[in-house]
């Protein structure tokens, strides 16, 4: 009797599981296309994109595997999910999920999927190299190295020049340095983007140029058994404090560029600037609304800064939600003792591709 009951229970569970899986797959119509090392899965309506990309994904896998010391799993699964906004990884099962519910994915799904998947493949290789040492205090260096590797694979390393501009602004805002970046959650607000990768890009590039291309990889290898400070010392042959000082000096001395063009047709364009109030008084705040065009929808508030030449302050943009993704808001405080006059400002925009544009303007203060 007990055997019959057990058999019935197992059979029922199997049938329920089979029904559930069949229902899910029939509803979503998941299709899979595979190469030697990569299995790419997505809904049937995007199957042609998968077939178009799988060979490129295989090349990306080969590049990242070589760059991270042959540490990637033999086979990885990449799932493109249009219902998910964020990327996620399960390296225990060698699985990557790319969240396609993003404005940039709508603009160019092919480029977005390839770039996002490339980032996560690079992350997996670095995690294996570092023995799983991706944590709060090392995250900014993982993000920096990931961007370096992905841009190299895409042959767009020139786009990394924008990281020096962003790092310089972060320095002026008192947000650059080991103490700031080690507190990854606070520094990044949980967002992975070009701004939050910029400190890691510039630090690792500094020592790549000084000690050779393999120096950053030695750092990640050292993380297997050492703290952040000890790993910096072992890889870059100097005490951690000296490593930091050399990096900050490089950022501060790096020449500024007025423009970076990776793809001219995708670069940000300023359509209109609205100042409210049009003429300010001491003790008030000017709200500067920027209406921008960005074909790939990948210009984030984190990539837009204004330098107020009167005060010397650098300020960060925020989203003006009522206008949508192409409208950003910058706030310029006017001190109570500010003398009347006309003052200049400069807006700098760096999109996620690495295109950089600058625009100058002015505002008036009256008594």
Which SSEs are present, and which pair or pack?
Elements: H1 2-28, E1 30-34, E2 38-43, H2 47-67, E3 76-81, E4 88-90, E5 95-99, H3 103-107, H4 109-129, H5 139-153, H6 161-172, H7 178-182, H8 184-188, H9 194-211, H10 215-222, H11 228-236, H12 240-253, E6 269-276, E7 279-280, E8 285-293, E9 304-308, E10 314-316, E11 318-319, E12 327-333, E13 341-350, E14 356-365
Parallel strand pairs: 2-3, 3-5, 7-14
Antiparallel strand pairs: 1-2, 4-5, 6-8, 8-12, 9-10, 9-13, 11-12, 13-14
Helix pairs in contact: 2-4, 4-5, 5-9, 6-9, 9-12, 10-11
Oligomer type: single chain
Strand order of the largest sheet: 1-2-3-5-4
Beta strand %:
15-25%
Q: Please report the number of helical segments.
A: 12
**Biggest sheet features:** 5 strands, mixed
* Order of secondary-structure elements: HEEHEEEHHHHHHHHHHEEEEEEEEE
Q: Briefly note the structural class of the backbone.
A: alpha+beta
In total, the number of strands is 14
How far the N terminus sits from the C terminus, by CA atoms, comes to 95 Å
Overall form? globular
Q: What count of domains describes the coordinates?
A: 3
Radius of gyration computed on alpha carbons: 24 Å
Calculate the mean pLDDT score and round it: 89
């Amino acid at each position: 009797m007990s055997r019959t009951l057990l058999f019935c229970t197992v059979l029922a569970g199997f049938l329920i599981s089979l029904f559930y899986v069949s229902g899910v797959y029939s509803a979503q119509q998941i299709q899979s296309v595979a190469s030697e090392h990569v299995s790419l899965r997505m809904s049937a309506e995007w199957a042609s994109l998968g077939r178009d990309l799988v060979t490129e994904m295989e090349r990306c896998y080969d590049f990242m595997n070589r760059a991270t010391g042959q540490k990637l799993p033999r086979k990885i699964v990449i799932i493109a999910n249009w219902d998910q906004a964020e990327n996620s990884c399960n390296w225990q099962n060698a699985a990557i999920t790319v969240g396609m519910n993003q404005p940039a994915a709508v603009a160019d799904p092919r480029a977005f999927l390839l770039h996002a998947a490339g980032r996560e493949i690079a992350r997996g290789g670095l995690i294996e190299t570092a023995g799983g040492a991706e944590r709060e205090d090392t995250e900014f260096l993982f993000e920096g190295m990931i961007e370096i590797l992905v841009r190299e694979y895409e042959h767009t390393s020139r786009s990394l020049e924008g990281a020096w501009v962003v790092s310089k602004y972060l320095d002026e805002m008192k947000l650059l340095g080991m103490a700031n970046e080690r507190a990854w959650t606070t520094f990044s607000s949980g967002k992975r983007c070009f701004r939050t990768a910029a400190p890691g890009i510039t630090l690792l590039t500094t020592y790549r140029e000084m000690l050779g291309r393999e120096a950053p990889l030695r750092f990640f290898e050292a993380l297997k058994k050492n703290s952040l400070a000890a790993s910096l010392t072992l890889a870059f042959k100097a005490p951690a404090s000296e490593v930091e000082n050399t990096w900050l000096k490089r950022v501060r001395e790096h020449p500024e560029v007025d423009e970076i063009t990776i793809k001219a047709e995708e670069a940000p364009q300023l359509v209109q600037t609205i100042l409210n109030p049009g003429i300010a008084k001491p003790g008030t705040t000017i709200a500067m609304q920027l209406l921008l065009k960005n074909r790939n929808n990948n210009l984030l508030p984190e990539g837009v800064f204004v330098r107020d030449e009167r005060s010397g302050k650098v300020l960060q943009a925020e989203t003006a939600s009522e206008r949508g993704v192409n409208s950003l808001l910058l706030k310029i405080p006017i001190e109570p003792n500010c003398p009347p006059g006309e003052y200049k400002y400069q807006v700098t925009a760096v999109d996620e591709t690495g295109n950089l544009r600058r625009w100058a303007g002015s505002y008036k203060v009256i008594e």
